[in-house]
Write a structure and sequence with these properties.
The strands form two sheets. Strands 1-2-6-3 form a four-stranded antiparallel beta sheet. Strands 4-5 form a two-stranded antiparallel ribbon. It is an alpha+beta fold. It has eight helices and six strands.
């Protein structure tokens, strides 16, 4: 399904992604405004989800198993900004690397905003009264190679044009897949610990004394 962009791109999260402390100065704010116009012009967001019984969904990794513990069903979701954003980033990279970085971070923030909205829509439309937050491949020890399996569950290639390469990279790039646990009793899900995370040795947040669950 096509989805609408209802909110401006969060400046706070955008600046955080750019590692800019405080507010943007006038010059940066002008670039953010220009980048937002470019992104909103090129983005064609699409999303799809499917509900499956927990025992039908193959998962790999301690983190995702614990996250879905106690859940009887799973909502599988996929969302993409579309190839227009990829093409724009490629073209901008040739002539303006600084703007490319701003656009890339803005696109990442935008797709996560849309994920937040779509996640809430899924929860409203499901029968179960309780749900976990979304959990994506690449988080904790849930392998990024599981992207392909999720895309097959969703038939996402046909339905929203979302595919995955042999190296588990999604095309279009600015896309997200995730699982949400569903239950008829309270479930909270579980954040992965740093010790479980495959990126723990490269994590910039850890170097700053932060945690991705903050």
């Amino acid at each position: 399904m096509n989805i609408d962009i209802k909110e401006p791109i969060s400046r706070e999260k955008w600046l955080d992604a750019l590692h800019v402390a405080g507010k943007a100065d006038d010059a940066l704010e002008a670039k953010l405004n220009e980048a937002e116009r470019m992104l909103l012009r090129e983005a064609q967001p699409k999303a799809v989800y499917r509900i499956m019984d927990r025992n039908e969904v193959i998962t790999c990794g301690f983190s995702i198993e614990k996250h879905l513990e106690g859940c009887s069903r799973v909502a599988i979701m996929g969302i993409t900004l579309g190839l227009g954003v990829d093409n724009m980033l490629r073209k901008t990279q040739v002539k303006d690397m600084a703007m490319t970085v701003i656009l890339d971070c803005g696109a990442s923030v935008l797709v996560e905003q849309l994920c937040d909205e779509y996640e809430e829509l899924i929860k409203q439309e499901t029968e179960e009264a309780y749900a976990t937050f979304r959990f994506s491949p690449g988080y904790g020890d849930y392998p990024v190679s599981e992207q392909g399996r999720i895309i097959r569950y969703l038939d996402a290639s046909r339905r929203i044009g979302l595919t995955v390469t042999a190296n588990s990279l999604m095309i279009p790039r600015k896309s997200v897949t995730a699982l949400i646990g569903l239950a008829d009793h309270p479930v909270a899900g579980r954040l992965a610990t740093c010790g479980e995370c495959v990126l723990r040795d490269k994590c910039t947040l850890r170097k700053e004394g932060k945690f991705c669950g903050d």
